[in-house]
Amino acid sequence: MPYETSPSSIHNTRYVEYTDVFADKNIIPAAAVRENLLLFDTFQGNNPLLQIFPYKEKFKMYQKLYIYLMRGEACIEINGKPNTLKENMFISIMPENTISLTSASNDLKYCMMVVYPRLSNQIYNEIGVTYTNTKLTLKHFIAHLTHEQAQRICELYNDIKSDLLSPPYMEKETYIHSLLQVIVIESINIYKYNPMPLQGDSNSRQYDVYCHFLTLLNKHISEHRTVSYYAEALGISSKYLSYVCTCYSQKNASTWIDEAVIQKAKALIMVHNYTFTETSIALHFKTVSCFTRYFKRVTNMTPKEFLKMQKKQQ
Asked: Measured on CA atoms in the order 134, 261, 29, 118, is the torsion positive or negative?
């Protein structure tokens, strides 16, 4: 049976100051360790997928997702390509993918784990293998589970959730890590893929800088578009920040910023029906003309051309 817990047993202080889509939408996980691991499920009758990914809204996720569908059917677009999830299907989605929920049945029942990049790499290192986002980025894996595999995934999820909600005790973190290790090993066995060597050391100061940069970018992209702003916030030079980003993602800091701004702009225009003027104001451009020039420099088309192209495709 799925593990169930009363919402009153969840300590909301654990979820303060998230700097991603979950915090923006005030979504409380079923259990969590802030900026490391989030658990979501339908055991209390809610549907967090609809909160996180309202129909046809697109979000670029910097976390790794594991979703196990126990019942029902859902269609998830990953980078614009549809993927239908059915009963007893298990999907893992690597960081840096753009995700959109396009449909979901009323009887949907699932559990979902959201693992932040640093913890994910740490777990891989602990079991003696690593993967690099630059080689597995934009990839996802889907499989039908056997009865035994499904039972194992449910047991692991419930054990992690139960332990996260339990009072602190000695070696609690070690125990949760051991459960996460098993999840990773199970997923490797299910999908039959080989993790690849990490180009950078995930235990290094550089990786801390990389993770903190992505966190700041998520939080401040509407107001700040310069590499110098983020470098100063991290206490490093702009040149060093770009070097670190390139080490871990093969994209420099400026490219990360440009892509994040454009993604935000497209969401405002397409999902929230902002006018170009409203979008430029929301993203703190001085004028609509400045916004248009920026958009064209990054995408090779104006916002008007982009909107026209999207309407044709619909």
From this structure: positive
What are 282's two structure tokens? 């929301």
Domains of the chain: 7-191 (2.60.120.280), 205-313 (1.10.10.60)
- How buried is 116 (Cβ within 10 angstroms: 0-12 exposed, 13-18 middle, 19+ buried)? buried
- For 242-290, write each residue's pLDDT tens digit: 888 887 777 889 998 998 888 788 878 876 788 999 999 999 999 999 9
How far from 109 is each of 70, 125, 184, 206, CA to CA, in Å?
5, 32, 22, 40
| Angstrom distance (rounded) from CA 131 to CA 195 | 5
Contact 115, 170 (CB under 8 A): no
pLDDT in tens, 227-237: 999 999 999 99
Phi, psi (degrees; rounded to nearest 5) at 63: -105, 165
What string of H, E and C letters represents the secondary structure of 220-253?
A: HCCCCCCHHHHHHHHCCCHHHHHHHHHHHHCCCH
Residue 39: left if φ>0, alpha if ψ -120 to 50, beta else—which one?
beta
What is this structure's pTM? Answer: 0.60
